[in-house]
Amino acid sequence: MADWPTPISLKGDYVSVVPLSHAHHDDLVEATADGELHKLWYTMIPDGAGMAAEIDRRLSLSNMLPFAIIDNASGKAVGMTTYMNIEQAHKRLEIGSTWYRKSVQRTPLNTECKLLLLQHAFEDLDCICVEFRTHFANVQSRRAIERLGAKFDGVLRSHMIMANGSVRDTAAYSIIASEWSTVKANLTWKLENFRSN
Description:
Elements: E1 10-11, E2 15-19, H1 25-33, H2 51-60, E3 64-71, E4 76-87, E5 92-100, H3 108-124, E6 129-135, H4 139-148, E7 151-161, E8 167-176, H5 180-196
Parallel strand pairs: 5-6
Antiparallel strand pairs: 1-2, 2-3, 3-4, 4-5, 6-8, 7-8
Helix pairs in contact: 3-5
């Protein structure tokens, strides 16, 4: 595990982000079955049978700090996310390998989860840049990243070979420190609108 950042739990009104462990396994198996997310050809979401190995993989990587995403209303893990591609010397990291069960997508959970992770990155870790990357073909993910206020940096062509043998073009986005106050205001406003509706 990376020395920076160190494991932390972050709690909001709708969602908590906690260090990933095997205690989350059964909830995550249930979550990945909701919408059969593992069948989306442009993602790398594990199926139920592969969940334990995916938890092990995330916990073993030195440049990744993995989290379970907990729905505060149910107390259940509804997805996973990570700080990854961590570069302490350059004060930058990526928020990625994120997925949510279908029933909580397009709810306040993702907005608040990203607000918590970004706030910790910029205000506690003093990051100068936070990156987001996704498959170019994953339009839903790209739009969600853009709704956060991240700027499109470009496409890394033929960036990865997927499990199905296809070659992934990666859409890269980022938020830099000077943009954080505006992004934070926007995400906070979005959450206030959820509460008032």
